[in-house]
């Protein structure tokens, strides 16, 4: 396609898990603006027009299944955007619930041939390759309950950082088996982004010095939503298994050494054995 149609969503049906606020809402609005029929799954109600809204708590497998039973018809793109910073349900909400939705939709062929999935990871998930044995052990759990039990049995894994490392490993490992079923999978790794979650956890100060030096503003949910919509569009048909950094170059400039004050980034990556 040479007329830009590969970027559009005309005639496509998308599901956004966690589409009430933040990056999920931004992805939903962007996809709708490109012609998509949008279905949102979230605990909180949406405050913008959608085709269908279904309330769901990702921490409750039975509730997820009941909600999916209400999801009629095929889906061309899935945006797995719900997340939380901490708490007893952080792994269920950030990953286990999302995986359950993906696996049901793939098994039931709700996700059509040629469809795509995009999750939200984080720069906090960098260095996942160096923890692969543990991540693979966790990902080998066959279902929601066994994954939840594994987390309960392994100290320190019910955390935001582990959930994001798991997402990156899952995306990489599922690239082959999902593509053999006609489904692509990717994730974005946002830097600090001006969302309610970031504001509540004071994350926006992490790259303030870099932004001041480059004359850039804090990243916005809309920017993340646009990247997610691109990754799930036919325009990105050759991309799968990728967790894409979206941080205005902060991490790469720090690793490359051109941004010398990036020592905190380097130290973080070193603690994760990422470099």
Structural commentary:
The chain is α/β, with parallel strands linked by helices and 275 residues long. It is 42% helix and 17% strand. A seven-stranded parallel sheet has the order 3-2-1-4-5-6-9, sandwiched between helices. The termini are far apart. The mean pLDDT is 93.
Draw up the topology in text.
Layout: E1 13-17, H1 22-33, E2 37-42, E3 52-55, H2 61-69, E4 75-80, H3 90-107, E5 111-120, H4 132-139, H5 144-153, H6 160-179, E6 183-190, E7 193-194, H7 196-200, H8 208-214, E8 219-220, H9 221-231, E9 243-246, H10 250-256, H11 263-271
Helix pairs in contact: 1-9, 2-3, 3-5, 3-6, 4-6
Oligomer: single chain
The ordered string of helix (H) and strand (E) elements is EHEEHEHEHHHEEHHEHEHH
What is the tally of beta strands? 9
Q: What fraction, in percent, of the residue positions are helical?
A: 40-55%
Strand content: 15-25%
Low-confidence stretches: none
Shape: globular
Structure described in brief:
With 275 residues, this protein is α/β, with parallel strands linked by helices. The protein is 42% helix and 17% strand. The chain has eleven helices and nine strands.
């Amino acid at each position: 396609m040479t007329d830009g149609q590969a970027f559009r969503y005309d005639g496509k049906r998308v599901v956004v898990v966690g589409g009430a606020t933040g990056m999920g809402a931004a992805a939903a609005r962007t996809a709708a603006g490109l012609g998509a029929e949008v279905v949102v799954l979230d605990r909180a109600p949406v405050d913008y027009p959608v085709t269908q809204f279904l309330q769901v708590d990702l921490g409750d497998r039975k509730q997820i299944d009941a909600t999916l039973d209400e999801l009629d018809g095929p889906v061309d793109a899935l945006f797995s955007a719900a997340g939380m910073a901490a708490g007893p349900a952080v792994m269920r909400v950030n990953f286990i619930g999302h995986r359950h939705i993906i696996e049901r939709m793939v098994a039931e062929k709700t996700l059509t041939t040629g469809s795509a999935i995009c999750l939200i990871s984080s720069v906090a998930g960098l260095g996942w390759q160096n923890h692969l044995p543990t991540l693979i052990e966790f990902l080998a759990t066959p279902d929601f309950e066994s994954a939840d039990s594994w987390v309960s049995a392994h100290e320190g894994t019910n955390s935001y950082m582990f959930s994001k490392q798991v997402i990156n490993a899952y995306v990489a490992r599922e690239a082959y088996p999902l593509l053999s079923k006609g489904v692509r999978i990717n994730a974005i790794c946002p830097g600090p982004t001006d969302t309610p979650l970031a504001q509540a956890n004071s994350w926006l100060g992490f790259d303030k010095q870099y932004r001041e030096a480059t004359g850039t503003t804090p990243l916005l949910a809309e920017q993340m939503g646009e990247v997610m919509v691109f990754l799930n569009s036919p325009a990105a048909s050759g991309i799968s298994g990728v967790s894409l950094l979206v941080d205005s170059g902060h991490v790469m400039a720090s690793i490359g050494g051109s941004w010398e004050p990036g020592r905190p980034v380097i130290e973080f990556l070193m603690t994760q054995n990422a470099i």
